[in-house]
């Protein structure tokens, strides 16, 4: 567990559409582009070993993409190198952050000054969802998985803690990047669960994500 004093004010950014990292969750990544190999090498030299996951966003009327303001920083907790120089790593989610300024420099990857303010709860203990109706949720999830021909270990889902269950599904379900961003920005576990339910119900009705997020 990291404390606020351990958190740096500038971190490297890894923009990756659809890749969602949440506090106290784990995200496996395959690193092979030269700029991100350099980013990983530099991150491993620091005491915090943090990398900021962030999603690109499209700007209406423009061909280039910008970054969402809110991302989640993860600490490199596992890594292995392949014979051809690629890395398989695991990021353990530490805290969400807000980008305040992108930092220009000589590095081949993005860096940003960030603020941790407003996300102090991410550094705390496991969050509970007091209003969670697990049987009803699992019934909805079963219909969703059946519709998408997905499989899972239902016994593990029934026994999983609220946070582990909700966050794992938020990260693993095949939602669109903007939907993933909505799950990331949810202010509480209960709100994230409500957003997750909305996305699943809408998918079962064959709706579009634009109607959800407006």
From TrEMBL:
InterPro entries: Lon_prtase_N (IPR003111), Lon_prtase_N_sf (IPR046336), PUA-like_sf (IPR015947). GO terms for molecular function: peptidase activity. It comes from the Bacteria. GO terms for biological process: proteolysis. Keywords: Hydrolase, Protease. It holds the Pfam family LON_substr_bdg. Residues 11-204 form the Lon N-terminal domain. This is ATP-dependent protease. It comes from Rhodophyticola porphyridii.
């Amino acid at each position: 567990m990291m404390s606020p004093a351990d958190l740096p004010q500038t971190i490297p950014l890894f923009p990756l559409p659809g890749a969602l990292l949440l506090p106290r969750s784990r995200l496996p990544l395959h690193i092979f582009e030269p700029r991100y190999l350099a980013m990983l090498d530099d991150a491993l030299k620091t005491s915090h070993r943090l990398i900021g996951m962030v999603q690109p966003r499209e700007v209406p009327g423009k061909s280039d993409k910008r970054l969402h303001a809110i991302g989640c920083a993860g600490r490199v907790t596992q890594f292995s190198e392949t014979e051809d120089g690629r890395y398989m790593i695991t990021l353990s989610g530490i805290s969400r952050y807000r980008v305040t300024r992108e930092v220009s420099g000589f590095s081949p990857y993005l860096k940003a000054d960030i603020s941790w303010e407003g996300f102090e709860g991410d550094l705390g203990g496991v969050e509970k969802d007091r209003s969670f109706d697990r049987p009803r949720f699992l019934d909805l999830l079963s219909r969703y998985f059946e519709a998408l021909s997905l499989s899972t270990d239902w016994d593990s889902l029934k026994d999983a803690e609220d946070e582990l269950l909700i966050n794992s599904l938020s990260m693993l379900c095949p939602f669109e990047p903007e939907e993933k961003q909505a799950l990331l920005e949810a202010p509480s576990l209960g709100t994230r669960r409500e957003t997750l339910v909305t996305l699943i119900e809408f998918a079962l009705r064959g709706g579009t994500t634009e109607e959800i997020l407006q």
